[in-house]
């Protein structure tokens, strides 16, 4: 990811290094910064998860006091969602969107720099709360009132500030991406000719711009309830704690799709390449993504079935939620149809993409089960839910990101990934991911509530397996770090096209990608003779 | 333009607050009752069916009061005015002000419970050791859905802040809940 | 939930669907079937959903598996060239819609049944607070708290790691013995001092409320899960046909000891239940007689201290710690604490009425005069505390009430 350093005039010293990375406005460098930042957060969030799973190995409290356990649960969620998955996708967008639409850079390069450099501050503030009197936020990443308002620790205010900064970063990033896509496509490229990764990101950007400010509103109300005498969420002042959940999930459900739509885009790029066949049903893929995004705004109530909702609202949210299965199903069918009668090879990115489709679909199945309100009364707030969203997020969002890194890393670094190591990573990751999260379905069905520090004997076996799997899963990702560094430092040189039947503008430039590309817009559509001329 | 959208959505989050309040008032989904008293019935109906009404009294943390309903439950006819009372006593050695927050279950019946008079419309100040019986005068509309045969009126007594800050509800709709 | 005429048809369906998974999986892998009609209906819905998902999964993953094997380059070197087919795309949009419509129908019907709280014979108000449940029988004027009864020694094994050290300072903390006891305890973390007692075959209406944060009351075997929300009340109901003991837990994160507020329900026959209500009434009278005797007596410091230590460990130590050191600013230290060595009146006020906006709750309704007097006396004499007015009699507490 830093292999294009040789294109910079050689300077030495810390000051030069700092000023380069602090002040860069280059989409590739900022993309790398985002990705490394996400990687760091992924390891921090992962370390917290290891703490959680270590405590849950066997019944009884061995390592972690209950209060601290709640802090781990909260920070694991916040860091993985806002620190790992979202920045990773923004990083991929930064690297790839200009390359895929033939733009010289992002439309607003300085804003791009700003929106990245907010993040380290946001998360330093958030993480520093671990060292404060009273500890880190301990109310779950969903920070339900009044646990986060009246009963929250002092560090809640730092959490609020951190979330605000993170939100500003996301919204600015989304604006930048949207403006880039609308204005900087190479002449001739219509919206319906854009690669699907670009399409899914365009829709994600819309979701970000509309959902994140609602989160900002929610945390601001938490802040004013805590310190400025308002009573949005407390009954004694005329407010309502359930109102908090409505506002939070009005943001929260689109957020779920913010974390998965780019993954859909990645799978839609990778599968056709390795099936050597065009993506099946491009138009229906686009329409399905748009309808998923739209529906994501009218299903928030399905997180709140146990709060005493009236029958009519329960039915409405149940039907809308079930409807989401339809466009999601269309996507899965399209991927299978893309593979159908192709001529497939199974390099590491393809393996991750296929695992993405299969495991995400399993997460979708449990999602469908959760949508049925009567059954949800039994599933709600148990490990079944934990299993569900980890299946959607780990093999979904995170495997999607990994697939993307394996797919585009040769273009970024100029070196092919060592397939032996890549496949080792894949097979260990997929084994441990299932070992960790599949038993959680069973502990949930057996009746284990989520977010508990200790449990009774009946859940013992499943937790033992989950904890064992989690330890393995943690180690596996160290392997991923090793592979990424190894590939950046050297390896078999990548050709410009990298993958035999890859299509798209990003494959017309040299590998590694030079710092500046497409300074003159490349011709569109790509013809064989014109390929390789786009590079500046 | 997109910035405007982002700012607009931030505003929308706040708009959700009154929207939710209005929505709840129309549908009664969270069991909140109207903060306004209604006029006495002009004609008492005698034909209404009878249902069971239950009363609950609860005390929030930090309020040194004893607070309980005079009766836990009785049967009333729909459309007939009924009076019950709640007993409260301040066991502290200083004056304390309390504010009762009402809630009705099932939530959707809130709109049929008409309160003519209720201690929950105002704050209650009790001197050290003072005790009081606070009345609730209400009737239940004859339009109450047929499948409801028990309605529960619950009051949670919270300690009122020394200086009462304006609540968002008060600011937005100038109405105490 | 479904009318009796269609119950037979459904029964057949159920039979087929139930037998297969029980053969395929060990029983404990499946959702708990429970004992009420509602929980069994939900289990049926869950099973149907599971099989719909499994069948769709087999078809989709089967197709994928087939294509992965058959259309790899070594076997299928020339890729086909199709990338659109309107007919197929319409079909695979419509089929899921149909499946969902069929599934939505029983779910919606079941739901309207779940929400029908009418005609209950008994109403129980369930109030959550950090971290215990309180049950009140509205028709019978009986109410009591239900606390976890698993001893702390079983929970805390003290691995010697820094983070759990606060738990190791138990008066008789012996982690090895604790672990052995824990492993032998069949109902570890799922046992309480006073279970909720319900009659079988009567419709019971639950009202849920909360004193502090949101809790959620769940008994899997009844399929009743209802949030307890501060300031509002929610409803649910059940009708349990079988006597027995049923266990569940709080399912909404409610702070530090969220894992330690179980629900235990004892379902007895109607006669036994009526007898139990009568016993409770008598017990209440006896207790009030005892309370009169307690406050007429003048207690010695040693007597109150020894009772108070037990009360303290059972109710206060989870936050303030057995050694009175507290935990940070959230749970202030009592050893040398402002309240514990300050004026007696303020100490009584804090214990009896709690502190708004914190986990410190009002103990006046939870403990007897004697216990409050004892625990205050204990706190004022334990550790390094030695204030001048170091003893309070139950009579003073009674007068304060």
Assess the beta-strand content of chain A as a share of residues: under 5%
Which residue ranges of chain B are poorly predicted, with pLDDT under 50 across at least 5 consecutive positions? 163-177
Q: What global shape of chain B is seen? A: flat
Under the CATH scheme, which class of chain A? Mainly Alpha
Architecture of chain A, CATH level 2?
Answer: Up-down Bundle
Mean pLDDT across all residues of chain B, rounded? 74
Low-confidence stretches of chain A: 1-7, 529-536
Q: Helical segment tally of chain A?
A: 15
How much helix, percentage-wise, in residues of chain B? 10-25%
Secondary structure category of chain B: alpha+beta
Assign the structural class of chain A, choosing from mainly alpha, mainly beta, alpha/beta, alpha+beta, or little secondary structure: mainly alpha
Brief sketch in words of this structure:
The complex is a heterotrimer of chains A (536), B (177) and C (401). Chain A is mainly α. Chain A is 65% helix and 0% strand.
Description:
The complex is a heterotrimer of chains A (536), B (177) and C (401). With 536 residues, chain A is mostly helical. In chain A, 65% of the residues lie in helices and 0% in strands. In chain A, 68% of the residues are buried. Residues 163-177 of chain B have low confidence and may be disordered. With 177 residues, chain B is α+β, with helices and mostly antiparallel strands. Chain B is flat. Helices cover 44% and strands 15% of the residues of chain C. In chain C, the strands form two sheets. In chain C, strands 3-2-1-5-8 form a five-stranded mixed beta sheet. The longest helix of chain C is centred in the N-terminal third of the chain and has 34 residues, at 37-70. Chain C is elongated. Chain C folds into three domains: 4-114, Orthogonal Bundle (Helix Hairpins); 122-150 and 187-281, Immunoglobulin-like (Sandwich), CATH 2.60.40.420; 297-400, Orthogonal Bundle (Cytochrome Bc1 Complex, Chain D, domain 2), CATH 1.10.760.10. The chains are: A mainly alpha (536), B alpha+beta (177), C alpha+beta (401). Chains in contact: A-B, A-C, B-C. Chains B and C meet through strand 1, strand 5 and strand 9 of B and strand 1, strand 5 and helix 10 of C.
